[in-house]
Amino acid sequence: MNAITSANNKPELTPQIDPPVVPLSISELKIPVVVLENLTLKHLAHQNKVDILRLSELMGISTHIVEELLQSLRKRSLIEVYQPHLGAGTVSKHHILYGLSASGLQDAELAFLNDSYIGPVPVTLEEYNDIVSRQDIRLNNINYENISNALKGVQGAQHMVPILGPALNSGRALLLYGHSGTGKSFVAAQLLNAFDTSVYIPFSVYASGNIIKVFSDLHHKPLDNNSSAKTIHFNQQYDRRWALCERPNVQVGGELTMDMLEVNHSEHNRVWLAPLQMLANNGLLIIDDLGRQKISVDTLLNRWIVPMEYSVDYLVLPSGQQVCIPFVLTLAFSTNLNPMEIGDPAFLRRLGYKVEFSPLLEDEYFDLVQIVCEKNDLEATHEALKYLSFLHSHFKVPFYPCIPKDVVGICKDIIKFEEKERKLTNNVIEASWRLYFTSDGLED
């Protein structure tokens, strides 16, 4: 397996479900009014002076609802109204600016102390659970062609298609094991390309008095600009509290801690952040380098016994309350350790599919070398490839798919520095080889 692909093999995506409809009243939001008012105050504090259209865009709700919230705040003298100077007869309600009064600023500060979230109005936990469940990957059957296309251009991966297809359809956790550099994590990440559907991700979720930020620029890739669309016609948009995205692909390695699996706040402010498994819902969660985390495999397993068995997870909120959310994702563990060394038989039994990754065959390996050379605009002569084969044989190094990218990359750096012809030679390959591998086990 290898992190090189000859072409973009992502399918054209269509939403798996109908889009969430635009709420037209405060009651349809199903969020407590005090939460909506506090969020409005925080936006006003952050923006200083702002009009209704801008507030509507920032909060992801209709101008009618924004206007209703502003009227309530104005009756309590928490906001002030500023008339713009646009000339007689040209001022509309959308041109009027709103800002906080002295008492409004105090209330905004109290709201920030409770939580620092600023963004679109959250969706309810019930609505989140419903939409996540209806966007379950397992509702789409994966066939041979889907998996084959997803792994197209990945050297040596085609023989795994009959294994990975049933694994995805099952919805059970996967264990990908084998030597470091055999492409386990990369192949796992490509599995989402087998699906041709997109999903709706909420910017935040309201659960038992807490706003949990869900949308992440790092893990979620929007497919349209609905949340920032300027149109005020509801038939031209869906609920702007949601973003239409590619299915999430969340990957974490040795840095994984138990805190990352619970609702937690960032270091700099009190914004409650969704845990990794919530970020990955309707997508893929890869736990890389399993067995090398600070937490033990047993501890991790105990945390996820219920989610892996019943597709639900129980989160403890900052308030101490517990809520139930869907655990609807493909969970893949990747390790270069012996599976028997990382967990007991009970753990391995819960991992429905164990997939071993091996080195490439020799012809697959050198096909990959040629591909990498072409991508780097380097000529790979027959003599140079023969010498590379000799180095593998002499030092007893298997044909791991990570090597061509790394070794050819070093060759490119050497050639550029020494201003040589863009061609692989025996000397350049040997120099690159010795820079890439440590001295341990290498003979003169």
TrEMBL record:
Top-level taxonomic group: Bacteria
Entry-linked Gene3D superfamilies: P-loop containing nucleotide triphosphate hydrolases
InterPro entries: AAA+_ATPase (IPR003593), P-loop_NTPase (IPR027417)
Domain AAA+ ATPase span(s) in chain numbering: 170-361
Record-linked SUPFAM superfamilies: P-loop containing nucleoside triphosphate hydrolases
Entry protein name: AAA family ATPase
Native source organism of the sequence: Vibrio gelatinilyticus
